[in-house]
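tool=predict chain=A
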Amino acid sequence: RIQAMRTLVVSAVTALLLGEAGASASASVNDMRRAKTKKPRAAYKGDDQTTMSNVLNQHLKRSEKSTLPCEQWSTVDLQEFMAAIAEHREDELQQIYHSVEDRRDLKHTVEDHKSHWAKLNHIVSNHPHLYEPQQESHCREAVMWWTHHLVEEKRGHFRLQGITVPLLPEGPKKPCGRGEGSDEELVCLYINEKNSCDWCHSTQAEHDAGAEGTTPPDALQKTTGPDDGNPHGWDRLRRCDQDQLPRCQLCEGVAGKVWSDRNEDIDLTPCEIVANASDVDPKTVAPPLYPKAFTVKRKDGKQGGYSDTLIGWKTDPFCFGFFPQNDSIPPLCYRSEDSLVKYYDIEKEATRIDYTIHNQGVFSIFPNITSTILMVQDTMWIQNHLWVVDQCICANPSGNHCETPPCKSYVHHWDTFKTAQYLGREKIAVEWIQNHGTGKSGKMMELDHFILWSHHVWTDPVSRRLVRAWKPFNGLQNYDPEAWVDSVADDSVFEAPPKKCKKGGAPIRINCDDEGHYHPKKSEGIEHLEALFMIAAQKGPEGLQDFVDVLYKSHPAAADTTIVI
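tool=predict ok
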């Protein structure tokens, strides 16, 4: 049956290319109206993704002579179908989509798509678990192209030639990937939202200049979220994305302190609805913007002006070196941290946070460790004091998620959340600030709630400061509204590369060259790290001095090491 369907597609395309279907078509009034309508009309909506797909499939079955369920199409057949459509897309419609930055705009040539599809097909052939997510993604894309890139007259020509049209997948969106490496990630970036980190983590200059891909698109034009399929099954209190159905409401996606991938491993923050967006005086709402330069530090010098739970892909057994990534597919690390100070300066494309890290799991009986995370331009340096020894990890936050052209990740834009959707006002407990705890022990505040894709952000209408931010696979961030200063007094805090990351600095340097720059194949002192973990596992905190004695013999710079409890 698939072969017969392929024959219908090919014959229909051949007829059109030979001119058998008639003269060139042009956009009708209805075609133009559809192109200018960014939000689907009520008759084309559903309460959730499954319902919406069922509704749209009914429309397709009524309008098309021949349709076939998504699961009965091969990915190659879907690619041939889309290539045929792309050859006959209407320029007038493209101009409309491009002029208003509509997500329906096709920015690449047919040959570009074919080249990329060939690369995807090769990877998927070696990772069969990616086939169904790719198939479903192609079905959604094919239906969108058929509906929004051909004028009705051209679709009529195709129908006369007996073309078969794919239907949308009608089940929940399948998760993509199992954390099996860069090839798998490339496919899932295509299937999900490609390079969405770049929307907020390109350079500020590119963003200000309006460079393509440096501003978040309108998530409300999508209904297929969460984009990674929400593989851990988190409920709507822990995760609610702007592009999913039903749309997120007040007191959804608020989360709290989390410590594992399990949905129930959370100290959920209390939340009470105060007013919907339409009932709040907009003059009282503080926009969710960062100052272009700032320092967040308690006036009494104590920890806690800024605190967070960092969440990112698990890259080592003990979660010492990790940072946020673009989805929640692999197992994740969770680490709650108090900060002595946080610095940010967008003109320097730099940020720095000095942390005290509270150890968890098997290391919970050990003293806390300190960590400084510094990012300048496209490189990050993670400097840890692991009880008795210094470590530096030189990192590339982008993960080289695209190479043609190459793209890098930078600190977040100061106006990252400028286009966030305002949901309304809530009474919500803010974790850790001003000597408070988490959950019901948090500091109750009346805050304004914004959402941008998977990000949730809260601002204080009194201080007009950003107070709380949450992204389910990146982390929870809380700022004491009394701890902000809109400047950085000493630019040397951004010195890069740091001395500890250069040759002769920290005894343990991972992915650092001699000058302290990121290099994926250069590391030293790994044997010290392995010895530290072995002694710690065998002897507990009492074994740390034994490690120092051994380390001193091989690395004299560690001679002044002291153990701080």
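Confidence is low (pLDDT under 50) at residues 1-23, 558-565. The CA atoms of residues 122 and 183 lie 10 Å apart.
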